Amino acid sequence: MNAQATSHQSSQPVAVVGAGLIGRAWAIVFARGGHPVRLHDADAATMSGSLAYIGERLKELEAYGLLNDPAEVVLARIRCEPNLADAVRDVVMVQENIRETVEAKKAIFAQLDALTPPEAILASSTSWLPASTFTADLAGRGRCLVGHPTNPPYLVPLVELCPAPWTDPKAMERAHALYEAAGQTPVTLTREIHGFLLNRVQAAVLNECFSLFEQGLASSDDIDKVLKDGLALRWSFMGPFETIDLNAPAGVTDYAKRYGQQNRETVVDVQPFGWGDDTLARVDAERRKQLDIADIGTRSAWRDRRLMALAAHKRQAPTH
After folding, report:
1. Does domain 3-188 have CATH number 3.40.50.300?
2. Is the omega angle on the peptide bond into residue 152 within 30 degrees of 0, that is, cis?
3. Matching CATH topology for 3-188 and 198-316?
4. Per-residue b or e along 269-289, where b marks 16 or more CB atoms closer than 10 Å to that residue's CB
5. DSSP symbol at 295
6. CATH number for the 198-316 domain, one of 3.60.40.10, 3.30.70.141, 2.60.120.200, 1.10.1040.10?
7. Are the beta carbons of 94 and 121 closer than 8 angstroms?
């Protein structure tokens, strides 16, 4: 995309519907990317603290060099709008972030379809619900899709674009371009699948981690180290396909010849973890020795600062 096209896109308003943590994070993403943002929530109390919260996060991002403009300039692009019709009147895109029920999604998307310009993209941040479950009866269903972020999206840029069977490919292309221009890393699914991509990969990893713990093979802390001090170090800048491509002299097919049989034998007896109460209680007990429940908020803030430092590093690091 050329600079002129990107500049034009970033000047177009975006509505963020639902001003909880994910909605506020999306407001940061789009405002940081240059868009005027209309932030809406039906709950006045949720709206009231939004700008103060966003302002604090923007100051942190600025301190890590993760803003192209001063924090106050980015914040000035965001307007809290209590009236939904006013919030979406002239937008190029709506990012919806309300509660995760089919009924709630159907209701809000019916309103959005009636109130927005006909060419506006309507994207849901839903983590699990396919767009087909709440957009089937809409006149403008061809512009509806899932835009599933990773939390928080202003630090973890992946966004999964998943179409309903009737989503217009051109709408998917426009959504991809908008997210990319806003600094995100959009990936496109070809069709609906439960959990999309990220949640399915995460579920597979969690399944194995819990199963290994349940079998008494290692503590939860040591299993965490397998990821954070092992696999995740490479995976933070290259994915598993590229990792195995580089781990054999002749690439993926060579890796498969060398290690495919061992991999098959490793997973042949994998069973779904049942998320049983006893195992969960033991993991929780180990975690509470590491971190008091009252300190989760403080540790979460530490996590976000580490993500900011990593994002700043990746922003400066060469890709080749």
Report:
1. no
2. yes
3. no
4. eeeebeeeeebeebbeeeeee
5. G
6. 1.10.1040.10
7. yes
The pTM of the full predicted model, rounded to 2 decimals, is 0.92
**Domain coordinates in residue numbering, the chain:** 3-188, 198-316
Please, which residues bridge with residue 121 across strands? 93
Structure tokens, 20: 């909880």
Would you state the structure tokens that stand for residue 29, as one six-digit string? 């993403």
The answer to whether 32 and 41 are in contact (CB under 8 A) is no
How far apart CA 176 and CA 170 sit, in angstroms, is 10
pLDDT by position in tens, the chain (length 320): 344 344 556 689 999 999 999 999 999 999 999 999 999 999 999 999 999 999 999 999 999 999 999 999 999 999 999 999 999 999 999 999 999 999 999 999 999 999 999 999 999 999 999 999 999 999 999 999 999 999 999 999 999 999 999 999 999 999 999 999 999 999 999 999 999 999 999 999 999 999 999 999 999 999 999 999 999 999 999 999 999 999 999 999 999 999 999 999 999 988 899 999 999 999 999 999 999 999 999 999 999 999 999 999 988 877 77
- CA–CA separation, 22 and 15 (whole Å): 13
